[in-house]
Amino acid sequence: MDFIQLFAPFKLILNISGFWPQKNPKPIVEVRKVFTLLVNLFFCLSLSIQCLFLRSQIEEFLDVLTVITPPVAYLFKQIVFFGHSGAFLTLMDFLKDDDLVSIPLQLRKQISDSLQVAKIIGVGYQACCTMTILFIVIWPMFTEHQLPVQFTLFDLGDFYAFMYLLQIFALANAAANSSSLDLIALTLMCIVKGQICVLNDKIRSLGEINASKGHGAQRVKYVSGCVLHHTKIIELVALIENVYSQIVLIEYLTSMVVICNIGFQLVIVELASFAFLLMLTFLVTMLCQLGMYCWFGNEIMLHSAAIRDACYESDWIHSCPQVRKMLLMIMERSKRPLYLTAGKFSILSLNSFTSVIHSAYSFFALMQRMYGKSTTF
């Protein structure tokens, strides 16, 4: 199977801004990269200053903070991803390894099913991102705001159109590139999950190999291939962890801040308003983003833990001692399930998802209490 072609759409998007890693990038690619970085930097810096000026006006402050937090997070993700360009290229080359791509035809459905799920979720996630950006862009049409993101540091005058276009470009670029990075991670995790499912089925199919006298070498060769396949999967997870660990940590922190702010704003805005629709769409997008990482990280843990069960379910009892020893090696290693982390601080799982939501709710409750006291006085 050719896994590299799965990343073609994301490569196209990241190439437009010059951030798809290349060994020898052309000068025009470097120009696009610097231009995109400077635009995002200017956008984030100007609106961060705006936040400082609005810190005494809680509702306006949260409006700006909620919208600019994802672009600021993307800026950091961009820098981290650029810093791991070499590791990412190594990861892409590793996906061409014969032990990963040489999958028996009867087992390819495991990979296909996993990737199909990733495709459906990816389309839904990108649709949420597109709707959120669209609602932010048309925000001034339904409110008294002049720009998608409030900017009152000085009178724009003749620069109004420039600032409007700058905000649209920066928001759209951040959404497109950030979602592409997320979907690359999603695809990689689905590949890992599919590879583990293939390995489990291969181990369970040991009984189909003739174990009679004179044919024992076939089983030894077959299980040796399973051991090698398991080793390659472990290496693949380590490579993904190296590239994405810090990026996922940024996602965790971003999700906590944005979900908390959106929850607070949903309480104070009118139910039948455009602001409520925008915030609700934004909330769904952030939950989907965080949920993708945690769900598929959890799937990797569960399926890797099932490798030991697959060894028990194989025809080990009728195998030679050499085969049994190799199966024992696989079982011992599978006692430590494979997993990905957020900056080495938290394992990607459904438990970590609920922890982030719980933390966001705690901050939300604190903000609501403080807001109630401020409005009382």
UniProtKB/TrEMBL annotation:
Keywords: Cell membrane, Membrane, Olfaction, Receptor, Sensory transduction, Transducer, Transmembrane, Transmembrane helix. It is a multi-pass membrane protein. Its main location: membrane. It comes from the Eukaryota. Signal peptide: none annotated. The keyword Membrane applies. Pfam families: 7tm_6. The keyword Membrane applies. GO terms for cellular component: plasma membrane. The chain crosses the membrane at residues 34-55, 116-139, 159-176, 249-268, 274-296, 338-361. GO terms for molecular function: odorant binding; olfactory receptor activity. It is found in: Cell membrane. Belongs to the insect chemoreceptor superfamily. Heteromeric odorant receptor channel (TC 1.A.69) family. This is Odorant receptor.
